[in-house]
Specification:
Helix content is about 15%, strand content about 50%. With about 325 residues, the protein is of the alpha+beta class. The radius of gyration is 45 Å and the shape is rod-shaped.
Length: about 325
């Protein structure tokens, strides 16, 4: 009897009771929605199961991920724990495809519930082509100038070439790769650096560690000036002897640390000479050509030796 009364009381005014229950559920859901938060971040997209194919056109490298849930839950999820990828397993020929963007949980994201995950964009367009590999030389890319008065006379790189991978259509036009810019500004001595190989096209994959060892040789430029046909003076010859040089002039090569010192130097008369002070009698002698000391300059003479023919000087009585 009591059960019957209870049942009758339950179904009495049932439309109002159902409406109240529905309203309570709606209010509960609304409250939960109002208390949920949304978190946004971007993660790199991975391309899986490409096999012998590679991307041949640009595509989004980062995908926006949104997490919706309770604040203390969604903010405890690490960005690395949401993996975003596209699966290319069913695409085996070159062409352009529209592929859905998928995601998977790992780490902390596997334990977080309830949590809604969505990605933007939900699909991407991707062109693929056959993968080609080849060796190409590495070219050093320079910027700046060494210090004035110096020159980079040579350089080496190791390795000198590297293997690259890429789509067939694009690889036909690539014959070399370059280093990142190597700055020469103000250098006055040899130097060694590790130079990164520039990734100038994201569709090209550089194998290895992507660096080369660079050695540059820097030498000082020595200012040089040549003076031609400067007369050679005969010195120290006895008064009763005369001499005749087979070569009466020589070339002077001036080298110095300062271009101004080299350019402004004026050799005095007698700057070049041969010393005949040890000659005692007529004859033909080979003597060294001497140059006077020039401050802050290095002097070279050509020729370094000359021949002199020595004879007795004619006296005044013989002349009469």
């Amino acid at each position: 009897m009591n059960f019957r009364k209870f049942f009758e009381s339950m179904i009495r005014n049932w439309p109002a009771k159902v409406l109240s229950l529905a309203l309570a559920i709606i209010l509960f859901i609304f409250h939960r929605m109002m208390t949920l938060e949304t978190r946004f971040f971007s993660v790199p997209i991975a391309i899986e199961n490409l096999n012998a194919m590679v991307p041949s056109s640009s595509y989004p490298r980062m995908i926006r991920v949104s997490l919706r849930g309770e604040a203390n839950s969604i903010y405890s999820v690490l960005e690395d724990d949401i993996e975003v990828y596209i699966d290319m397993e069913r695409f085996n020929t070159p062409g352009a495809y529209v592929v859905p963007v998928q995601w998977r949980r790992k780490g902390t994201a596997q334990l977080t519930e309830p949590m809604q995950i969505s990605v933007d964009p939900m699909e991407i367009s991707l062109s693929v082509d056959n993968r080609i590999s080849k060796f190409v030389p590495i070219i050093a890319d320079f910027v700046g100038q060494v210090e004035t008065g110096y020159n980079m006379t040579s350089y080496t790189i190791n390795p000198t070439q590297i293997v690259i991978d890429g789509p067939a259509a694009l690889m036909d036009g690539i014959s070399e790769v370059f280093t990142e810019q190597i700055d020469l500004s103000g250098r006055i001595s040899d130097f060694n650096i590790t130079a990164a190989i520039a990734q100038r096209d994201p569709l090209i994959v550089i194998r290895g560690n992507g660096v080369t060892e660079f050695h540059g040789t820097i030498t000082q430029i020595i200012p040089v000036r040549n003076i031609q046909n400067f007369p050679i003076l005969i010195t120290g010859l006895r008064e009763d002897l005369t001499g005749e040089l087979d070569i009466k002039s020589a070339s002077i090569r001036l080298e110095g640390s300062s271009r101004n010192a080299v350019e402004t130097f004026v050799p005095s008369p007698g700057f070049l000479s041969v010393d005949c002070s040890e000659i005692e009698e007529p004859g033909i002698y080979t003597l060294s050509v001497y140059a006077r000391i020039a401050e802050n300059l290095r002097v070279r003479v050509d020729p370094v030796e000359v021949r002199i023919e020595v004879a007795y000087a004619e006296t005044e009585e013989e002349e009469t």
